[in-house]
Amino acid sequence: MQYLLLISADEETAVTRMREGAFASFDTWITDLEQRGVLRAHVGLHESATATTVRLRDGEVLLTDGPFAEGREQVGGLAVVDCADLDEAVAIAAAHPAAAFGQVEVRPVRVS
Amino acid sequence: MTDDVERVLADTFAQDWGRLVATLIRLTGDWDLAEECTQDAFAAALRTWRRDGIPDVPRAWLTTTARNRAIDRIRRERVGAEKVRSLVVPPGELDLDVLDSGIVDDRLRLLFTCCHPALALSSRVELALRTLCGLTTAEIARLFGVPEPTMAKRLVRTKHKIAVAGIGYQVPSAARLPERTPAVLAVLYLMFTEGYAATAGPHLVRVDLCHEAIDLARALTGLVPDDPEAAGLHALLLLQHARTSARTDADGVLVPLEEQDRAAWDHAAIEAGLAELRRAVRRERVGPYQLQALIAACHATAPTAAQTDWVRIVALYDELVAVLPSAAVQVNRAVAIGMARGPQAGLDALAATPDHPLTPAVRADLLRRLGRATDAADAYREALTRTENQAERAYLERRLRA
Asked: How far is B161 from chain A (nearest CA, A)?
């Protein structure tokens, strides 16, 4: 089964924690996933202030400066993992360094 | 004959519903299909057994029938030949010993799946009551105080999440058992509590729920023999359940502990509970279930109500409040203080306790013992507004008349 890991945190906290070295374990995390062959995709994102939100209304493209949901907690990274079951995906999510101060939403990927 | 069939079916339903559903889920991987085919098998049994007689092993007959029904349904719906192949068992008798001695009891698989931490606590309990205990959606809805369609939607949502989110139908690996067991203990405890003091309805006790919870707790201690809280829960349930037949009189009226006929308690169950409790506390990791079992043991071993060691019970409640400061525990602690140090001390303790559905009934009993009859009557009347259980209501009404 494939799961999307939606990694989010308070952006200010994330910046501080990264400066303090909270992401030291990130390389270990991702290397482990690559070696196990479970990682299908992974991207890290620039801060949400750089986002542009796009809507089509009455045939007109409307742009908003910023993320679709305002708030301190913002998505900072995405990963897609291929696991046996939810327990395995949860274990991977819990080992992501951001889980210690932010959160990781684990969503099953729809297969058509 | 007809009566025999209905009686055996009712017994088999109470004992084996959970086992049947659990096995069918393992075989089909489909929760709804498993429940429906189990239901169909019971309906078929009513017709067939009346015609052909009751089979020697009703559960084997029901398992075979439910499985065949599942094969038919899957074939008809053409949900892939692969699924059918795995269901087809070679000809011959279904061997119950093989079913039972499988690596683990299928019910534990079902229980751990229902209690997965990715499900909300209320969802876990609801699903366990539906799948393991065979309560109807209407009964569970009443229990949680929501309309039936709401509960039906909640059950569908929970089963959908299990299927879509990839929650495995399995007992977790040994490494994960310690973190997963507390949720299972909590659900077994709630299952037993609901059986022990039904929230509504004519009977104080739903014995089938109590038996199922005790049996599952016993099976769980086999799975996690080093977990003293699992043994503590098993001991607690045995000790509580031992008092069942003395808890209501011939008219179905609740009999309070101090007035119960202690000879009518199940002394074999008490011995079993005490032995389990001794095994648990030997590990010297005493948690809330063991503390409650120790309290139950004080009651179970007191030769008369008057000889109950209330001082020790208060001390145990003090420990329990420290780890489990729920309103129910605090109300029960106030009762114990009322017995150990007198009704006024009990009232003082009760005043410092958060409100609980039992609070007015406890206050009423303490006021009655203080001789404050008018205040007691007011409290008994208030207590009547807080319970729908007929046996409890009958007791409160009796106090009001006295």
From this structure: 10
Whole-model pTM: value is 0.81
CB contact under 8 A, A3 and B118: no
Helices (H) and strands (E) in chain B, counts: 20, 2
ipTM of the complex model: 0.87
**Which residues, at least 6 apart from B324, have a Cβ–Cβ distance to it below 8 Å?**
B288, B291
Would you call B168 and A83 a contact, using CB atoms and an 8 Å cutoff? no
pLDDT in tens, B27-55: 888 999 999 999 999 999 999 999 999 99
Cβ–Cβ of A86/B167 closer than 8 Å?
yes
User: Which pLDDT tens digit goes with each residue over B355-402?
Assistant: 888 899 999 999 999 999 999 999 999 999 888 778 888 888 888 887
> d(Cα B365, Cα B134) in Å, to the nearest integer?
37
CA dihedral (B337, B343, B349, B355) positive or negative: positive
Given A85, A106, A108, which is nearest B168 (Cβ)? Answer: A85
In a domain, B284, yes or no: no
CB contact under 8 A, B168 and A90: no
Range of the domain at B368: 309-402
Residue B238 lies in a domain: no
> Would you say residue B178 lies in a domain?
no
Domains and CATH numbers, chain A: 2-108 (3.30.70.1060)
